[in-house]
Amino acid sequence: MNSLTSQTLSRPPSASSQALDLAIRRLSSALEREGINRFSISSRCAPTDDERRALRQRQAEIAASLRPASAETIVRLVSVMRTGFPSQSGSDIERKGALQVYASALGRFPEWVIERACRDAIEGRIGKGQFAPSAAEMATHCEGIVRQAREEMGAIERILSARVYHEPTDEERRKVVDGFERLSRDLAAALEMEEAGKPRLEPMTLEQVTERAGTLAAGLRLSEETRRRLGLMEQEGA
Questions:
Q1: Is residue 18 part of a domain?
Q2: I want to staple 162 with a disulfide (CB 3.0 to 4.6 A). Which of 41, 81, 121, 193 is the partner?
Q3: Complete edge-to-edge strand list for the sheet that includes strand 163-165
Q4: Distance between CA atoms of 210 and 53, rounded to whole angstroms?
Q5: Alpha carbon of 71 to those of 26, 96, 167: distances in Å?
Q6: Could you give the CA distance from residue 166 to residue 50 in angstroms, rounded to a whole number?
Q7: Number of domains in the chain
Q8: Model's pTM, two decimal places?
Q9: Can you tell me the distance from the alpha carbon of 238 to that of 235, in angstroms, rounded to the nearest whole number?
């Protein structure tokens, strides 16, 4: 089984610390969706500078561990895995063609994932264990192995790329409230001064009302007379 041992530096990411894991969960729950693959986060919940540094380091570690294996590496690992099962009849060309199918199906996975999947296949943890698993079965099994690392990577990317919007602090909110209250008091005082400067309306007698009504009626009569004069002028002009 030495041939299934990784010949490169491909390794799974180390286990995340409890503090970082809790930070990722807390920050992920504070994200607000703005659109497709776009998120924002309040300045009160955004990661600190130390948290951002830790997240970037973790992001780089996971990215390195997810680097895809070469086609040659995949063919080597799958060839060793297939020797643990009854050989299937076929020409050398068919065998090479089958290995290329594996290389294509598993090309998005890192070496350590494919190596683990090959071991699981030989130990009977993929399919019924009677025959070598197909390329599709291997790909499905690899997805399960790498899922946790990819999900953690996605969570970190969403946190680091989220737009941070400013949310007022309690102190800023208090200042706004105090300022509004001062403005309200100033406006109220100004209105009281304006009302105090206006002349008071005195009650009117019936005679005063009649006199004002007569003045209004005279204005209406004058308007009618003016219109009649204009009509006469139009007739004379015609």
A1: yes
A2: 41
A3: 32-35, 38-42, 163-165
A4: 87
A5: 39, 12, 50
A6: 19
A7: 1
A8: 0.68
A9: 5
**Alpha-carbon radius of gyration of the chain:** 42
Domain range enclosing 67: 12-165
If you ran DSSP here, which 8-state letter would residue 1 be given?
-
Provide the pairing of β-strand 38-42 with 32-35: antiparallel
Cα–Cα nearest to 86, from 122, 135, 116? 122
User: Which pLDDT tens digit goes with each residue over 33-84?
Assistant: 999 989 999 999 999 999 999 999 999 999 999 999 999 999 999 999 999 8
pLDDT digits (tens, 9 = 90+) for 146-182: 999 999 999 999 999 999 999 887 887 788 777 777 7
Q: Which long-range contacts (CB under 8 A, 24 or more apart) does 116-122 make?
A: 116/145, 117/141, 117/142, 117/145, 118/4, 118/77, 118/78, 118/80, 118/81, 119/1, 119/4, 121/81, 121/84, 122/1, 122/81, 122/84
What are 32's strand-pairing partners? Answer: 40
Residue 183 lies in a domain: no
Is residue 108 a part of any domain in this protein?
A: yes
